Amino acid sequence: MGEAPQIAILRAGTFMRTQYIPRLAEISKLLLLKSIWSRTEESARGAVEIAQKHFPGVECKWGDKGLQEIIEDSSILGVAVRERKEKERK
What we know:
- By secondary structure, the chain is of the alpha/beta class.
- The chain has helices spanning 14-26, 41-51, 63-72, 86-89, and strands spanning 6-10, 32-38, 59-62, 76-81.
- The chain has a 4-stranded parallel sheet with strand order 3-2-1-4, with helices on both faces.
- Helix 1 links the parallel strand 1 and strand 2 (32-38).
């Protein structure tokens, strides 16, 4: 079997930390979480700290530059994104 596919997480809020990361950890033998991105460094670092327990090499990305790096990374085959709720947009 080849290398596990690599994915990224976009948006590193509470839901991502409490739901997505634990679910991805359950299937960590099937995929590699390469990067976590958020608009702010603080949020991205907090999520990476949690994810490192299951994905030791996970990279921390934030802001426009970090998002662009993920977009340009051809090794990332997919992303997990949680859309903001309408009330969060206001």
